[in-house]
Design goal:
Helix content of chain A: under 10%
Distance between the termini of chain A: 39 Å
Oligomer: heterodimer
Largest sheet of chain A: 7 strands, mixed
Distance between the termini of chain B: 29 Å
Number of helices of chain A: 0
Mean pLDDT of chain A: 96
Order of helices and strands of chain A: EEEEEEEEEEE
Radius of gyration of chain B: 13 Å
Helix content of chain B: under 10%
Structural class of chain B: mainly beta
Low-confidence stretches of chain A: none
Radius of gyration of chain A: 13 Å
Shape of chain A: globular
Order of helices and strands of chain B: EEEEEEEEE
Largest sheet of chain B: 6 strands, mixed
Shape of chain B: globular
Number of strands of chain A: 11
Chain lengths: 121, 110
């Protein structure tokens, strides 16, 4: 079955960088778009970024533009989120989410369990 | 402020029917499909409804949804205690070239 396992979260100081990873299994990785979605403590869901199945297009929320970079390595079935210039408001659980693979835009079909990022001095 | 507006809370007694609304605009709900997600405390969200009114396999038919113009709604009939959760709507926003979520609705089963 589809499995998405995030890692790389932790406590980081404001202004620093962090890279999140998502290990995928149970499906043909290169056939699906992938998202990062985050949820601040006690708050709602916020979409962060999307990468197409072939990596040719990437989309970002305004809050992530210029600071975050989404990427994928199909040879390793891995999704990444490079986060730079982190701010306190980036504190959240970050979910790796697989798209549906059948159309545009690919919706959030399967979710990982998330990794917690805390930005604090 | 979310581009999709949901009531922060909803409630109903066991066996009752409850609806949760999601209001947007022409650039999101009005021109794209609506999706609904269920999230239990401490867990990841789970797909409940896709493409306005389609249920994934495994989702009980007590859950239904519809869309009209720039609004959508989720209905839960035969309410059960295990339906207590947060519910989120989502849609693609053409004006942002990105996804937007509603602020979420906390459902309480009385």
């Amino acid at each position: 079955q589809v499995q998405l396992v995030e890692s790389g979260g932790g406590v980081v100081q404001p202004g620093k960088s962090l890279r999140l990873s998502c290990a995928a299994s149970g499906f043909t990785f290169s056939s699906y778009g992938l998202h990062w979605v985050r949820q601040a403590p006690g708050k709602g869901l916020e979409w962060v970024a999307l990468i197409w199945y072939d990596g040719s297009n990437k989309y970002y929320a305004d809050s992530a533009k210029g600071r975050f970079t989404i990427s994928r390595d199909d040879s390793k079935n891995m999704l990444y989120l490079q986060m730079n210039s982190l701010r306190a408001e980036d504190t959240a659980i970050y979910y790796c989410v697989r798209g549906d693979g059948s159309g545009w835009p690919e919706y959030f079909q399967h979710w990982g369990q998330g990794t917690l990022v805390t930005v604090s001095s | 402020q979310s581009l999709l507006t949901q009531p922060p809370s909803a409630s109903g007694a066991p066996g009752q029917r409850v609806t949760i609304s999601c209001s947007g605009s022409n650039s999101n709900i009005g021109n794209n499909f609506v999706y609904w997600y269920q999230q239990f405390p401490g867990a990841a969200p789970n797909l409940l409804i896709f493409r306005n009114d389609q249920r994934p396999s495994g989702v009980p038919d007590r859950f239904s949804a519809s869309k009209s113009g720039t609004s959508a709604s989720l209905a839960i009939s035969g309410l059960r205690s295990e339906d207590e959760a947060d519910y989120y709507c989502a849609a693609w926003a053409d004006s942002l070239s990105g996804w937007v979520f509603g602020g979420g609705t906390k459902l309480t089963v009385l």
